């Protein structure tokens, strides 16, 4: 092929990819990629990139190939998930990604790989044919490495190894209560995948209306923010059931190349607390329990029945009525209702049931056939359709159980597992102050709205408080009961400080993975009461809210 034609192809490939990366990493509309590409191509042709005067060809390999590849990975993650969470990447690699439903993501990954090969080939051709590129790309290689958020995040986590104080969060950890409850209520927890409370904004119409209706009968919590290491399903469930962020085992894990055998074994979570009270516990989820360690977590924390796609799919009347992740929500709720009926009829003490649905899963959701009959045809793209479906099915399920008398003496908690990842209304969502859904109702829960600056870590003690436990200092894990007047960690220190401390933390990480990691580093006995105050606000939890 003529060198001028190759030059144009190389400039077009780089220009289009540069434009696309700009639109992914900013809020610019998709069509601006063509403007960026046109400017790049025009500049390249004017300056004769790849065809300079007195051109001298050299067969070299550009320094920038690796930095460009790393940026390609970052753009792919940002394009797929919106916010790149390194903790999620590390945890899923170690806990396992078998039986996932992201077939579309795999296709996208292959497409990204092919495109990146094209970019690397274009840069290599330009560098070999243009001495100006050979000189400049070395400088740009350094710039690309220094500016990549992926490497910046890795550097921050590595810095925790040599931090002066790696136990800031661990010192604030409170073990959950152990006293015996009198006449404890049953418990139903419904995790609604990615269905954050931000969808209640009028900008999104009435897609959240059914959850608003549920909230009128109990306590609605506003301001449940998302701190680092709580922004994916397994992390959201651990935050709300254990009161701690999910810090991946990472380098403290004994067998680096083997899957985890336990998930968060070093802390007592909701299942451990309730099992000690004689609860019969069940987890039912539409997706596989083999994905991301869900089965390991629930079985390891004393749930009696743990069932996911592989267990529930044989129970379907129509085995073909599944999506790439697993069961549709209408099927899941039918099976969950059967499980509650079984537990209620056996009368072997209080029961606790946790369900995790799929309808709101990014990027487009998985609305059930029941929703198609209710809402009309789904266009396959609009996440608001799926959000409305998820909320309607959750409300219908609860009303069905109530009509059968299955929720008598039962505390019901409806919540989102985490904020949504990149969806069709991503730009609108990220322009708002986002928070998670949290609704509780049952006997003794007065209808009210509670606005607090909190995180999903505070859900754990709030739930224990609602069940009737007496909490030491109104706290459990790293959270504070939102029914109390005690301040949360975020109210005291701010979420930026908490996230920064999390990046420097090592002691809490060892606590989480105690039993499958090297022995925890014990604090020195010489100064058990001393504490380095890095900020004026570095006082654990003694400050009450001033009314």
Describe the structure.
- With 547 residues, the protein is an alpha/beta fold.
- It has two domains: 3-162, no CATH class; 184-245 and 264-474, 3-Layer(aba) Sandwich (Alkaline Phosphatase, subunit A), CATH 3.40.720.
- Helix content is 43%, strand content 10%.
- It contains 20 helices and ten strands.
- The chain has helices spanning 3-25, 32-46, 65-81, 86-95, 103-129, 131-147, 149-159, 209-215, 233-242, 270-275, 294-300, 309-312, 329-346, 369-375, 383-403, 426-430, 459-467, 489-493, 495-504, 507-512, and strands at 186-192, 219-225, 280-285, 305-307, 351-356, 410-416, 438-441, 448-455, 475-476, 479-480.
- An eight-stranded mixed sheet has the order 4-3-5-1-6-7-2-8, sandwiched between helices. A two-stranded antiparallel sheet has the order 9-10.
- Helix 5 packs antiparallel against helix 6.
- Residues 251-257, 517-533 and 540-547 have low confidence and may be disordered.
- Pfam families: Sulfatase (PF00884).
- Keywords: Cell membrane, Membrane, Transmembrane, Transmembrane helix.
Descriptors for this entry?
single chain, membrane, Alkaline_phosphatase_core_sf, Alkaline Phosphatase, subunit A, 20 helices, 8-stranded mixed sheet, 2 domains, alpha/beta, two-stranded antiparallel ribbon, 10% strand
Named CATH topology of the largest domain: Alkaline Phosphatase, subunit A
What letter string, H or E per element, gives the SSE order?
HHHHHHHEHEHHEHEHHEHHEHEEHEEHHH
Overall mean confidence score, pLDDT: 86
Approximate shape: elongated
Beta strand %: 5-15%
What's the alpha carbon Rg, rounded to whole Å?
26 Å
Q: What is the count of structural domains? A: 2
Strand runs, count:
10
Going by CATH, what is the homologous superfamily of the largest domain? Alkaline Phosphatase, subunit A
Strand order of the largest sheet: 4-3-5-1-6-7-2-8
Give the proportion of residues in helices. 40-55%
- Distance separating the two termini: 77 Å
Number of helical runs?
20
By CATH, the architecture of the largest domain is named 3-Layer(aba) Sandwich
Structural class: alpha/beta
Low-pLDDT regions: 251-257, 517-533, 540-547
Q: Largest beta sheet, briefly?
A: 8 strands, mixed
